[in-house]
Every structure is written in C-alpha cells, then in structure tokens.
Design a protein that fits this description.
Blueprint (H helix, E strand, L loop, with lengths): L49 H9 L3 H6 L13 E5 L8 H16 L6 E4 L7 E6 L9 E8 L2 E10 L10 H16 L25 H10 L13 H6 L3 H6 L20 H13 L3 H14 L3 H17 L3 H14 L8 H8 L3 H14 L4 H13 L3 H15 L5
Parallel strand pairs: 1-2, 1-3, 3-5
Antiparallel strand pairs: 4-5
Helix pairs in contact: 3-4, 8-9, 9-10, 10-11, 12-13, 13-14, 14-15
Length: 410
C-alpha cells in the first residue's frame, strides 16, 4: 500500500466549540469596563481551569501571534472604540458600507468583547479607515499600521486601495474580506493563521468572509494577557485577572520549541506535545517526520470527525505547497474517515488549486443540489465565479443557495 505522508498545523480537531468554554466563567465575571448589558461569554481569565486555557491555545493561532512579536492591543476599558471611515464623492458609495459592516461583524461575532462607535471626523477617532489611489506594488487590498508614542497606541490607520490591479473598483466581497483582516490586525491579531478558512489566513488569491471560532479564540486569548503595547495601561486590578504570555503557553507543557536542538529525542505522549513536535518538524522542512507526528495525533483523537479534520487541514497544507498527490491522498483519508460538509468538497478544492475550474464547478454544483445548506461548497463556488468574472452565474448561485447556505458577506 502506498505510504501517504500527512501533516497538519495547530489542529485541535474540533474537540470543543468556542462556547463550550463558558462553563468555566464565574457567575460574576470581571467587567473590564464593558457595560453589564453585554454578557461576557467570550474571554478567558484566571477563574478558569488550566485545561480550558490549554484547549483554547491548541485550537487557536495564539502562538503565531506571540511569535510575531509583542502583544499590541487596546485596553478593554476603551471600548467602544471610535471609528472613522472615509466617504467621498470620488469613491463607490458601497465602500464605506462594506467596511462598516466588517466592523459590525467583529462586534457581533465577539459578543461585545470588542465594540465600535462610528464618528464623522478622523480627529475624533481611534481607528481611521481611508481609501487611496496610490499603488504600493503589493497585491493586498488593504494595509494597517499603529501610530505609537513609545509603548502607547495613539491610533490605528487602515488604508484600502481605491482600485484593483486592473484599475477597476474593488469587488465588495473582496473588500469585505480585506476589511475583516485589517480590522483583525488593528485589534491585535498580528499573527497569520495556518487554516485556510480563518479570517487571518494570508489572503493571496483566496479570501474569507466568515469569522471563525479559531479567530475568536485567538482574539479572546490576546485580550486575556497583559499587553506589551496598549493605549491605556491596565490597572492593578485588571492585571490581577490577566495572564502573562508565558502563563498561557505553559499550559501546553510541551518540551518543544524552535530552540530544541534534537527533536528526535522528544517523545509525544499527548496531543499538545505531538502537535508542537510536528509543527517544529514542519518549520524545519522535515516533512516526513512531521507526517509521522501528525499521524500519531490523528490516532490519539477519539472521534471520527476530529480525525477527519486533521486530514482535511493536511490536504489544504499540501495544496498550498502544490504537492497535489499527497493532498489527494489526505483528502481520500479525510472523506473515508468522516464524510461531512467540509470533507466532501475536498476533490473540488483540489481541482480549484490545480486550476481545473470547470471540474470544480461541476462537483460543487452537484454537492449543493444534494445539500443546499453546505456553506463550504457555496463559498468556494462563489469564489470561483468571482475570480472568473462570471457575474451572471455568481448572482444566480447567490439567489439559489444564499437563502440556505448563508450570506457569504456575513
């Protein structure tokens, strides 16, 4: 039997949903300046068990944020942050509406952990969004920077390109996806997610319009640690309930990082250590060894759905690496392990990466005919139609499956 090499990155295998952690919240959680009418169901503090924090770290990209440098975020007492979004006659009217909707999506998805208030002038705002005709040579639609005074945030500025590389106005879906990502950066999500479906996954030719549980867990963890850079230093009372980065990472209790000289000497007896070991092998481009560790992680998982999620992410990783044979092998395993709304689209996703759009379209249409509620198939099909500029087919797909599979802008 042909040996199939597999690997994955920071997969928690769907052990818990974000909201299952709420059982660890005390009946009277600290407010951190958030009004009482917002129930704090998204967030972590020292009233919670080490197991809860560990599970959140595993099922997030918190480590990528930490590796990217200092924790830069706003003080919770600052919310709602004042937001200015440029509006002028020389830009499409929907530009401002799309960016505003992206801010509202972060507020709604975070259940009030982050909140915003829109203002009419930039002088009154902590977050400022502008549109420009200048081309910086990058393929990204937007960019974000913090203005700092030492270790103090004075404001965050997001700049979007007025036109795309073809000198056309920006597509509303792509602008929305870019806005979600740049707002995420302005909130402190400075790391890049390895998962294709997360908002903070590097966009490239792909873009996402749905804030995921991994995005939210990472955001919640960031706002649960003492910041290195912020706009208002936390009070002693606030600090008492906040973790240090090391306290968060110590919950993993894994003897593996980028300074470990001999990974072969490490034995992984649990999922967290196995993932950490596999990730380090992957960073060092020792993919066969990483594959063995990821295989062991999948075997340690107790339910088929969790196992299939490992193979699903592995397939996506190999697609990004353009190792299509290995991606196909992992896709077959994922589908055979548990056929669900995500794994069923893998053959079409592979065709999409291999630029066989017609085949991908045919498969996705068949999937949606059989299950019009499959949002993953719906999103990918819409994405292909947008990239091929098939506006009529895109609009027909939205009309047909949007009511069941969901609004791709939300």
């Amino acid at each position: 039997m042909k040996k199939i090499v597999i690997s994955a990155f920071l997969i928690a295998a769907g052990a818990f949903s974000l909201y299952s952690f709420n059982s660890g919240i005390s009946e009277n959680p600290p407010e951190f300046g958030i009004k009482k009418y917002y129930a704090i169901t998204l967030g972590y503090d020292k009233s919670m068990s080490e197991k809860t924090i560990k599970a959140a770290v595993i099922d997030s990209y918190f480590r990528e944020v930490v590796e990217n440098g200092k924790i830069v975020r706003w003080n919770k007492s600052s919310f709602p942050l004042k937001v200015y979004i440029q509006d002028s006659e020389d830009m499409p009217s929907y530009y401002r509406e799309v960016v505003m909707r992206a801010y509202q999506s972060w507020e709604r998805a975070s259940e009030g952990l982050v909140r915003f208030m829109f203002v009419d002038t930039p002088d009154d705002a902590e977050m400022k969004c502008y549109f420009t005709n200048k081309d910086d040579g990058s393929k990204s639609i937007g960019s974000q920077t913090f203005s700092l005074n030492g270790n103090m945030i004075t404001d965050s500025v997001i700049t979007f390109k007025m036109k795309n590389e073809k000198n056309q106005v920006q597509d509303s879906k792509q602008l929305y996806s870019s806005a979600l990502q740049e707002i995420g950066r302005s909130l402190g999500l400075t790391g890049k997610s390895p998962s294709i479906y997360d908002v903070m996954y590097p966009i490239g030719i792909k873009f996402n319009t749905e804030i995921t549980d991994r995005d939210l867990k990472t955001l919640a963890l960031i706002y649960s640690v003492v910041p290195d850079v912020t706009n208002i230093p936390p009070s002693e009372e606030e600090r008492a309930m906040l973790f240090t980065v090391q306290e968060i990472l110590s919950t993993l209790n894994v003897p593996v990082d980028d300074t470990t000289p001999d990974l072969d000497a490490v034995t992984a007896n649990d999922i967290a250590t196995g993932l950490a070991l596999a990730e380090e092998y992957r960073k060092r481009a020792e993919y066969d060894k990483a594959a063995q560790e990821y295989q062991a992680v999948a075997q340690m998982k107790t339910d088929l759905r969790s196992k299939s999620e490992v193979y699903y992410e592995v397939a996506v990783m190999y697609l990004d690496a353009e190792e299509f044979d290995k991606a196909k092998g992992c896709a077959e395993i994922a589908c055979a392990t548990d056929m669900n709304d995500k794994t069923i689209i893998l053959p079409a996703l592979i065709d999409y990466y291999m630029k066989r759009s017609n085949s991908a379209i045919e498969q996705l249409d068949t999937i949606l005919q059989q299950n019009p509620y499959n949002k993953h198939a719906y999103k990918l099909l819409c994405q292909i139609y947008r990239e091929k500029h098939h506006e009529n087919l895109l609009n027909a797909t939205i009309r047909k499956y949007g009511p069941t599979a969901g609004d791709i802008e939300e």
